Amino acid sequence: xxxxxxxxxxxxxxxxxxxxxxxxxxxxxxxxxxxxxxxxxxxxxxxxxxxxxxxxxxxxxxxxxxxxxxxxxxxxxxx
Length: 79
Hints:
The model has no long low-confidence stretch (mean pLDDT 89). Helices cover 15% and strands 24% of the residues. It is an alpha+beta fold. The protein is globular, with a radius of gyration of 13 Å. Residues 1-27 are annotated as: Disordered. It comes from Micromonospora sediminimaris.
């Protein structure tokens, strides 16, 4: 599968296994991620708008973000 464009409607993606963080809270302030078939990337969507647009990233882009978050690179953004 070729990587779809960013902002693609979730309805235009194949069925995906979306996953929230365990830190997700009941107020719905979270995002969900799902692996695209064939290693075509990772989709990210707002859990409050499950049919809304999805942002599509490569596995390397998600790895860079997750590892940076793990290292504290973005701590200043959350106060």
